[in-house]
Amino acid sequence: MQEMMPDRPSPRPKARIKGSFWKAAFAPKRVALNALMVLYCLALFLVFDFAYSSLTHGQEQARAARIYDAVYDHGFAPKFDGYDVWGEARYRLITDSLGFKDGSTRDVPLQSDARRILLIGDSFAEGIGLPYERTFAGLLNGAGQSRTDRIEFLDAGVASYSPSIYYKKIKYLLDRGLRFDEVVLLSDSSDVEDEATSYFCIDDDPKYHRFCTTPPGAVPEPAIKRDFFIDRFVVTNRVRVTIKRWIQTRLGNKRAAIDSDHNRIGWTTRNPDPARYRPLGVDGGIARSLENMGKLSDLLASRGIPLTIVVYPWAQQIAQDDRDSRQVRLWRDFCPHRCKAFIDLFPPFFAAADRDKDWYEHLYILGDDHFSAAGNRMLFEELSKRLLPK
Q1: From its phi and psi, is residue 118 left (phi > 0), alpha (psi between -120 and 50) or beta?
Q2: What's this model's pTM, rounded to 2 decimal places?
Q3: Domain count, the chain
Q4: Coil, helix or strand for 264?
C-alpha cells in the first residue's frame, strides 16, 4: 500500500516574496519611521559635533585672535591659544608675547644671544590655514634651534599686510626695543593692490591722509571674518569638504579657483581691472609700495640691519606661465644698493610644476591660492639654502 505523504505548502513565487518585502518596506508608516530615525541620528550627530567643536574651541573662544592696532592697522593678540578659520579649514593658532604666530604662548625676550631673523609678509608669511609647526616659518625656526650656532626665526607676518604696514610695524618693534639681526621680507603679489586701496590712515606721508575713510578712534572690521558653521561643526565640515573634494576629483575641476580667478594678480597681467586699484591706480600703488619699502630700507640701514626680499608665485601665476613676472622685476630692480639679497623663488616653483602635472593639488590649498603644508615645506627647503648655511 503506497504510503501517504503529508501535504506541504507550495513555495510562494520569488516575485511575490520580493513584492511583499518592498511593499512592507515602503509602507507609509514605515517610511515615516525610517525618516524620523534618520533625522534623529542626524540631530544627535550634530549635537555631539557642536559640543565637541565648542569644547575644543579653547579657552580663548571669546577673545579675537586678530585685532586692530592704531600704529600698524592690525595684527595678532599676544598669547592667544585657540582656533582660527581660513576658507574651509579650522586650525590651531597660537601666538607669543609679541603677538607673533608661534608654537607656544611663550615670553619672547626683546634681546637674545642667538642670531635672530625677523620674517614679515602677508598671509603667505603667516602660513594661513596651517598650524605653526607646518608652516615654513615654524620649520625654519625648528631647524635653526637645532644648530650649534642657534638661529631664531620670529614670524611677524599677518594676513593683508603690505609695504605701509611692513615699515610701520618694524619701526614700532624697533622703537619698543626688539633686537634682531636681519629682516627677511616676503613680498606678495597683492601688495601693490593693497597700497593702491588701503592703509591710508597709518601712512607717514600726509598726502595719503585725504584717502583715509576710517573715523578717528573707530576700529576697522577684521581682515578675516569667522565662519560659525566651520567653528561649531568641525566634524560635519570635514565630512562635507571630503565629499566635495571627491566630487571635484571625479569632475576634474580641482583647479577651478585658479582657472577662473585671475583678477587677484591683475596688476602683474597686461589688462588689470582699474576698478580694483582705486583710488591710486596701479601706477600709484607701485609708487607707494616703492616709497614705503624705501623708507623701510633706510630705517634698517640706519640700524645696521640687512634686508632680504623674497618673491614667490601664486598658483594663478604658474597657471598663466608668468615666469618673469612684473612682481619679480619690480623687486629685483629695487634691491641693488637696498638689500642684502634678493631671493627669487619663481624658478624652483615653476620647475616643480613642470615636473608634476598635479602641482596645484600638491603645493597649494585646494580651492585657494595659498601654499599647502607641502608648499610650505618647499618654501622652507628653498629658504634654508640661503638662511641656514651649512
Answers
A1: beta
A2: 0.81
A3: 1
A4: helix
